[in-house]
Every structure is written in C-alpha cells, then in structure tokens.
C-alpha cells in the first residue's frame, strides 16, 4: 500500500515518528512538504532520510496574509497523478490548496485521512471547519478530548482515531538513564542560592500568551504562605524584561533564575529532571511530554478549548495538576498542594510520569496507531 503524507512543513520533532513509519513493511510512505513561514522553526530535511530520500516530495509553499493562509504549488498535481492508495493531509481549512487536492483525491478513488487537532467550538468559523472535516474518510487526532468533541458533533467514532504525539523517545530515554542524583544536586547548587527549596520550571519562549507572570506571582504568594520555592526560566523572548522587573518588584531576585535559551538536550535533561514541577500557566503542548519523559510532573490550566492536546498526559494527582483557567489563586493552591503531598516520594513519582510516555506518547505507538487507522479505513486486517 502506498500512502502520501502531505504537510505544509515537517517540524524537526516529527523526524523520529517519520523514521518509524518508514520501517513499515506493508505500507510505503512518501512525505511531501514545503518551507515554513517562520524561519526560526527547525525542519526535517530530505537528507535526514538517507537511503529513503526517494520517499520525499518537495513543493513550493506560498504563504498569504502574513502566514495565515497557504497555497502549496505542486500539491494538487501530486495528489491527482501520484500512484497512491491514500493520502494523509495535515489538514486545515486555511490551507487553500488542500480543499481542491482533497476533492480530487476522493474523485480519483484515493482514501483521505486528516492528521488534525480538530478542536471545534460552536462558532461560525468552526462550522466551516466541521464541513472541512467531513471530507475525510478518517481522522487522526492528538487527544481523546477532541475525539469526544467530534462525536458530539455527529462524527462516527469508528473513523476517529487517537494517535497522540511524540518527541525523540529513544534519545531521551538514553539520556534519562545516564542522569545521576549527584549531577542533579550539583546543578541545583550551581544555579540557586537556596538549592534545597523546591524548583518550579518553565521551558520555552518567554512570550505574552504563556502568561508567565502567573508563575512569579504564584511564587510570591507561596513565599508569603511560608512555602518558599525557586523558579527557573529556560528560554528567551519578548517578556523576559517584564518578568525580570516583576521578579524585582516581588523581591524574589534570590529565588528566580533566567537561564536563557538552551537547545542542547543533555543540558535540558538535567534542568528538567532536577526540577520538582514544570509549570505552564498558558497552553502546555509538547513541553508536557518533554517534562514527563524525564520524570517531572506538570501543572497547567484545565480549559480544553485553550489547551494543546498533550495536556491530557497530565493525570491530576498522579503526573501533575490542572488549575482553574484564569485563576491565579487556583494555580498557587495547586502548586502548594502538590509540593506538600508529593515532594518526598520523588523516585516513585518519576516512574509514574514516565509510564504515560512509555505507553502512549512515543514514536512506536504513534506509528502503530497510524497504521491501525489506515487499515481500518481500507477495511483490511493487520
């Protein structure tokens, strides 16, 4: 069976699952993509596939209206004339060429699947999205909440598949196994003046939508409650200056450390594993998977319409907590409650966090779930 996977572009974190898919003996995948609008995003490149480079198709992306809409020059002809049994689209109604490519794919007898977030609300633009989603023979979703949401809107549960998401599981596992308690302790002592206090971590770009002032305000509140904490920001961004000024205003300079950007996984592994909690006041996304892989629980908000699907990896009280969206008091309470209950059983907690990654959020599971979905849509037996 020959399947085309058509994306606008493949971010670099997709490489591990793509490599697992290329190992399949029964499905021959070909990957199609163009260039990204945001040049800061690191991409998968054809040379990453080495001997499988023939299973890569490049198209020209034409980004319109400051990157909101996309036309892929070459997509339609590939879908129309390419000898594929089915096509998986990274689907968005804002990808204008996809509408025509999907219709033509169906008219020429190809099965169509969408790799899609599929978060819909009862709004006009989401009614358009629902129409767009109904063109697919099957939907590959990142989370269970999205599946329940679509079923509520009348989609057949048998053709809505949850494939989750993943990072470089094998590489992270290797680094995780190399970590030692001594290294983690030494790093804490290098960074903080009070290394014995709990560490709250944020990893990512310091941008307004992340609502990072919540972390500093929560830290100040916990200090007032006689539950002092350290705070570690790993990343840079437009909000760094504001956060530094807020830190000074709250008199937390001795407890907050701005590490700056870090792209070396060996260092990130240590920084994540040495922390007691990863706190993401805005949406959490793949940061949750990254943190849980190294055994660090995650706190984020509970509004699924404003979240990324990876927040589902957080089981309240087991792998982290969900605070009430928009409530600073709820965030401070959740952090305080978690630290009071869970700080002593750290090694057991590491295993609980890693278990959900080992079970669902890894490239082997993801590739297998995609294959299962394809077989079901084609009414084949694995």
Name the features.
382 residues; alpha/beta; Rossmann fold; 2 domains; seven-stranded parallel sheet; six-stranded parallel sheet
List the helices and strands and how they pair.
Elements lengths: L1 E5 L8 H8 L5 E6 L22 E3 L1 E5 L4 E5 L1 H7 L4 E5 L5 H12 L3 E6 L7 H10 L4 E4 L2 H9 L7 E3 L6 H10 L2 H11 L7 E5 L9 H12 L5 E5 L5 H10 L6 E5 L4 H9 L3 E4 L5 H8 L4 E4 L18 E4 L4 H15 L3 H14 L3 H15 L5
Parallel strand pairs: 1-2, 1-6, 2-3, 6-7, 7-8, 8-9, 10-11, 10-13, 11-12, 13-14, 14-15
Antiparallel strand pairs: 4-5
Helix pairs in contact: 1-14, 2-3, 8-12, 11-13
Write a brief caption for the model.
With 382 residues, this protein is an alpha/beta fold.
According to CATH, the fold-level topology of the largest domain is Rossmann fold
Radius of gyration equals 22 Å
Gap between N and C termini, in Å?
A: 12 Å
Unreliable spans: none
The best one-word shape is: elongated
The share of residues in extended strands comes to: 15-25%
In spatial order, strands of the major sheet run: 3-2-1-6-7-8-9
CATH architecture of the largest domain: 3-Layer(aba) Sandwich
Largest sheet: 7 strands, parallel
Helix amount, in percent?
Answer: 25-40%
- Annotated CATH homologous superfamily of the largest domain: Glycogen Phosphorylase B
Quaternary status: single chain
Q: Domains counted in the coordinates: how many?
A: 2
CATH top level of the largest domain is Alpha Beta
Please identify the structural class as seen in this structure: alpha/beta
What is the overall pLDDT average? 93
- Total strand segments: 15
Number of helices: 14
Order of helices and strands: EHEEEEHEHEHEHEHHEHEHEHEHEEHHH
